[in-house]
Amino acid sequence: MAIRRGRGVAAINYPTGMNLGGDPTQALVHSTPTGNFMVTLSSVDLGQGMKQIMAQICAETIGVPTDRVVVDTADTDTGPHCMGTFASRGTHRAGNAVIQAAKEARQVMLEVAAEELEVNASDLETDGQGNILVKGAPQKSISIFDVALSAHFKRGRSISGRGMFLIPRSHPEKETGAMKPSTCYAHACTVAEVEVDDETGEVTVLTVKNVFEIGRALNPKMVEQQLVGGSWMGISHALYETTEPYYPNRDHGGTDFNQYLMPGPGDLAETEIIVLERPSADGPYGAKGPGEMCANPQIPAVANAVFDAVGVRIDTLPITPERILRALKAQAN
Amino acid sequence: MELRKNYFADVRKDDLHEIGQPRPRSDSPGHVTGKTAYFADRNFPGMLHLKMVRSPHHHARIRSIDTSEAEKHPGVVKVLTAKDVPHNVYTILILIQVGPEDETVLADGKVRWKGEAVVAVLAETERAAQEAAAKVKVDYEVLPAVFDMEEALKPGAPLVNEYHGQNYYLYDSGECRKVRFGDVEAGFAEADHVLEQSYQSSPIEHAPTETTGCVVVPEGNDRFTCYTNTQAMFFTLDNTSIILQMPGSKLHFVGGTVGGGFGGKVDVIVEPIAILGAKLTGRPVCFIYSREEEMQISSPRAAEKVIIKDGVMKDGRIIARKVTGYTDAGAYSRHSPYGAQKGAGHYPGPYTIPNVWIDTYCVYTNRTPSSAMRGFGVTIGDFALEVQMDKLARLIGMDPLEFRFINAYRDGDMKAHRQPTEGAALIECMQEASRVANWPVAEKYMAMSSYKNGA
Fold it and tell me: B455 CA to chain A: closest CA distance, Å?
């Protein structure tokens, strides 16, 4: 009886969005009298930070710092329609809608600035700090604060925009299954290293090295929180979680966190995250949806590492000590 | 975390001001100081608590329901049964024309899974609602139940759901969603090795920090405000409008601050009945799942069975792949017909294989209805595919990572569902994994590229 070490690899891709149902989301953007910008949506922030990302996308497109943008979302009296936050679609779909709305608002903003500066709107650019400058003559400028005041009280213009992003529904062809199930794909490759105690069947995940390709990391710190969390969830899925431990038997289902097992802080693997960015053709600033795929590759990587360690295949999830011991026993016989 | 900017630098401009910056989240201070308001932080004078009477049986006919004792229980204000729900038989994907309506808000004549909602009790306190629920008498005639997907698909199996008429979802393509590409049998005949393996998962729980729920307030203007942690505002509003036969203009949903979803809050379960309770009592109503309900009543990830048969050549090329996938929907559809279909669009994984045959089934059994979860229709498929890849590599004596390079998809490759590959990056992920995990592969693989005609 011994502790045995093994490693396994898995490589995956993941579709962004819900093309097989039709996938629309809308956004509205408007400026306040002092040149702050309000993004109005009905999309839901599940805790992953969607509001923050929409603020950064709007800020980038308008040309202001992110702290000048406020996101008002998930109120059906004010926000235009969004399908919902699922299918790795939130950032991609709502982000595209916000860009379209923000572009329209930006155009009005530049037109008002052009009137104030007596130049053509096409000759203007933003500095990203809250100012509008004449290209090639940056000393000739106006603050967005003053442009918004002018629009509201002098020029009678609404600095606002409407955004709509729709992926039309793809109906799979009956006989061949020809379909367009996604817009773009995120990618991952994970290498997991485990120790398996062949006396107890216990698995310890020592290290998990994840490489994710996500289009573009719109906010790297938030990407990190999602990818690290997803990696933990993948390991939990592989080794611990089930509401029906002896499926298809309905008994023995956990009803609280004492009975429903998940890895605790002491069970965390040393986790490494590497991010590659190949911008997607249709994503907001090239982003893809990494929210779901980041929890997938750890599962087969751990399963393959367990085989590498002790030479038995556990093809049923979760890979519990009981299943490993039964397989070892069957192998010995 | 590290960003590796050297990959794809030729197709990416890094000249942005706000995008790509690690700005602090504006909601973080509220979260970590306990100031963020979630739906359940709202409390209204006179608010009632809703508790469900649930089926103790996996499959049973309801002979009678007696609520008289429950109604007399101190603190009870209203007891609801199926006849109180205007449009009691519904299905959420009807909004995208995926029918038939197959589920009841409150059971009517039959229960099809252990835990199914039968009677709703509204009372002044959570305790009174719980105690009164225990006094509801339901007379059941227990029916044979089926839990195993293969058993459910056999002729003569107990029929789980009469609205379908058979124990699988009927697609326009028949009993399963199909993908047909090339000639898979010719591929198997030509292959040096054929390997068929079966993979199985069990249901798992989303385990959000915040359980599913809502608080409903009847407003003075004949409208209802519903504070909810749904993942989809209008999806929930529009389904509620159908179930309650109430114009959408009467409904105002407020949400968007959610303590974790992971796909577990897209089923439209708590809102319609809570709004109905508020309408019939004229009082605010809260309906919040206990942790036990969250774990055993709310939809889990479906159990899946995946059978993969591959034909592989000694040089590492996979030339045929046949996948049969079964998704255990439990007793009702919810999102499962979509998930099974999404699986059909995902196989054979990120590999270019000339001959592919996919069948994915959505199967009904007498268990808690499953539904969406992070990785819906894909996660278990990826587990099966990637363990299968490991077995194939070992079968032909090849390094598992190198074996994947040989089969990895690249830009322009035609997928089985007949879309050309665009924006591929699997090869680069594997190259970086090789480096970071110190898992060396032959130089020719490190020189490959996902670009069209990449080396």
Answer: 18
- For residue A247, give the nearest of B114, B202, B265 by CB distance: B202
pLDDT of residue B455: 53
pLDDT tens string A28-51: 999 999 999 999 999 999 999 999
Q: Given B8, B174, B417, which is nearest A277 (Cβ)? A: B8
pLDDT tens-digit series, residues B224-240: 999 999 999 999 999 99
Question: Can you tell me whether residue A329 is helix, strand or coil?
Answer: helix
Percentage of chain A exceeding pLDDT 70:
100
Q: In order of start, what are the domains of chain B with their CATH numbers?
A: 48-142+207-296 (3.90.1170.50), 177-203+300-446 (3.30.365.10)
Q: Of the candidates A10, A20, A220, which has its C-beta nearest B386's C-beta?
A: A10
**Is residue A159 pLDDT above 80, yes or no?**
yes
Beta carbons of B26 and A286 less than 8 Å apart: no
A270 touching B (Cβ < 8 Å): no
What's the one-letter identity of residue B60? A
Determine the average pLDDT of the residues in A143-159.
98
Residue in chain B closest to A277 (alpha carbons) equals: B8
pLDDT of residue B453 exceeding 80, the answer is no
Three-state DSSP at B425 gives: coil
Cα-based distances in Å from A267 to A207, A239, A295, A324: 11, 11, 17, 18
CB of A216 within 8 Å of a chain B CB? The answer is yes
CB contact under 8 Å between A46 and B260, yes or no, is yes
* Closest-CA residue to B302 (of B349, B334, B274, B347): B334
User: What is the pLDDT, as a whole number, of residue A1?
Assistant: 81
Type and span of the H or E element at B329: strand B318-330
In DSSP terms, B49 is beta-bridged to B123, B286
φ, ψ dihedrals at B120, nearest 5°: -110, 130
Helix, strand, or coil (residue B191): coil
Does an H or E element contain B243, and which?
Answer: helix B233-244
Q: pLDDT tens, A310-320?
A: 999 999 999 99
3-class DSSP assignment, residue B390: helix
Q: Which fold has domain A23-167?
A: Aldehyde Oxidoreductase; domain 4 (3.30.365)
Report the share of chain B in percent with pLDDT over 90. 98
What is the nearest CA distance from B166 to chain A, expressed in angstroms?
A: 19
Q: Beta partners for A12?
A: A188
- What are A64's two structure tokens? 């202001």
Per-residue pLDDT tens over the stretch B335-380: 999 999 999 999 999 999 999 999 999 999 999 999 999 999 999 9
- Among A51, A63, A66, A62, smallest CA distance to A29 is for A62
Compute CA distances B372 → A235, A295, B325, whole Å: 19, 15, 16
Beta-ladder partners of B243: none
The structure tokens listed for B283 are 């009082």
For residue B160, give the DSSP letter. Answer: S
- Choosing from A115, A202, A277, A292, the catalytic residue is A292
State phi, psi for B41 to the nearest 5 degrees: -80, -10
How far apart CA A64 and CA A132 sit, in angstroms, is: 10
Class of domain A3-16+182-332: alpha beta
Chain B residues in contact with A260 by the CB 8 A cut-off are 205, 207, 295
CA distance B293 to B211: 9
Q: Taking residues B376-401, what's their average pLDDT?
A: 98
**Cα Dmax for chain A:** 89
Q: Is A223 on the interface with B (CB under 8 A)?
A: yes
**Is the CB of A187 less than 8 angstroms away from the CB of B350?**
yes
B256: nearest CA partner in chain A: A44
The residues spanned by each domain of chain A are 3-16+182-332, 23-167
For B215-239, give the DSSP string. Answer: EEEE-TTS-EEEEE--S-HHHHHHH
Same fold, A3-16+182-332 and A23-167: yes
